[in-house]
Write a structure and sequence with these properties.
- The chain is an alpha+beta fold.
- It has helices spanning about 5-25, 90-100, and strands at about 35, 40-45, 50-55, 60-65, 70-75, 80.
- The protein has a six-stranded antiparallel sheet, covered by helices on one side.
- It is globular, with a radius of gyration of 13 Å.
Length: about 110
């Protein structure tokens, strides 16, 4: 993948996270504060826990830090997959956000 392709795909991922947060806030009681600064989004939950999603441009990776740990994702041609085989980005984000929010949340592209 070229740098431009990475940037396009990674920006689409970040935008999907932002839009999903807006949808979740409109349709649930989750109250997720999402702040974006450049290639990083910080999701802050009502209990003050956070999930941080950050682009690692030189490595063509998206990193996510949650209470469950730190995870690295690479685009495999179809989806953003964990580099250690722990699953797809949006499925993982949904699981970790649900744990931290205390209610079922679904993030999607």
């Amino acid at each position: 993948m070229t740098d431009i392709e990475f940037q396009d795909r990674a920006e689409a991922l970040l935008r999907a996270v932002e839009l999903t947060c807006d949808r979740i806030n409109d349709t649930t009681d989750a109250d997720i504060d999402n702040q974006r600064v450049g290639g990083m989004i910080t999701l802050t939950f009502a209990n003050r826990s956070q999930i941080i999603i950050n682009l690692q441009k030189p490595l063509h990776e998206v990193w996510m830090a949650a209470r469950a740990g730190g995870f690295h994702y690479q685009y495999d041609g179809a989806a953003w997959m964990d580099t250690k085989g722990q699953g797809e980005f949006f499925a993982s984000l949904s699981r970790y956000a649900s744990e931290q929010a205390g209610l079922p949340l679904v993030f999607s592209f």
